[in-house]
Model the fold of this input.
Amino acid sequence: MINGEILMAAELGESPHVVSRQLELLSRPVNQLCTSLKARPPRVVVTCARGSSAYAASFGKHLIERYLGIPVAPAAPSITTIYGRELQLENQLFLAISQSGRSDDLVETAASARTAGALTVAIVNDVDSPLAATCDIVLPMAAGTESSVAATKTFIASLAALLNLVAAWANETSLEAALNRLPGRLAEATHLNWSGAVDTISIARSLVTLGRGPTFAIAQEAALKLKEVCNLHAEAYSGAEFQHGPIALVSSGYPVLIFMPGDRGAEPLSTLAADLCRKRAAVFTTGRDGHPGAVWLPILQPDRPETDAVCLIQSFYGLAIHLATHRGMSVDQPRNLQKITRTR
Done:
């Protein structure tokens, strides 16, 4: 804390300014990258990331497959760092995402991909990092220093960078326009009150978070933050995958936090929400379809499903801070964690 201020809350409040600043800084490198991608379109995109950045990559997978039809797959860094195998990535796109750019496994995997002939791109906050130096093109998050161990503004900056890239690559001018509106909407989302979920979730032993389409990555990041800063066991699933086994976890009062998408993915997830209410689960849901027994979490007026999803995580971060302080946790110094994690 600085003078009693929770760093995570302060940095969360910076997110609108980060996205606004990033829009200006990304123009040149994104145009350069898109020129290369349009001249030689890859058949596959391989992502490489850890922690919150891996869930940003999950968001990127949805965007790229949805708007460009190009398959996206996560790399397993151990294939390079432990087993010494080089992937066949000639003329493909390798996309690394990292706040610090200093995890050895990401750097080594990016170097291997570049040697194999991939176009390597780093979305990174530290543009002087080893990962940035290893990759062909750097897309700066432009989030500034993030002192709290739990990532907030860098996660949102990663999502914004991916939105910027895909909007330009796919010539989606309406997505670009929504991205320009995002800073103001993030500022509004910061003040939405999700405290209706605090009492139930704070005493839970475990819970699940659900999403679909653009909100699946949001559910993944939310589950991670519940672990990191609230010491609550939480697992994220797509609404479809949840029904293939994990739904057996649900009993009366079992908490389920649903991030409803603003597109066609909402219909099946809404049907699932209704079913969970009938099973007497403790359902907390965003969206505007009311379900008897569910607690509705307020959202902004709909704009664009992909940018609306970013606003959901902004509101959730406020809930995570509230939950952590309610449970007596140190928000800025989570147990057993450090800011930069170096793995191989």
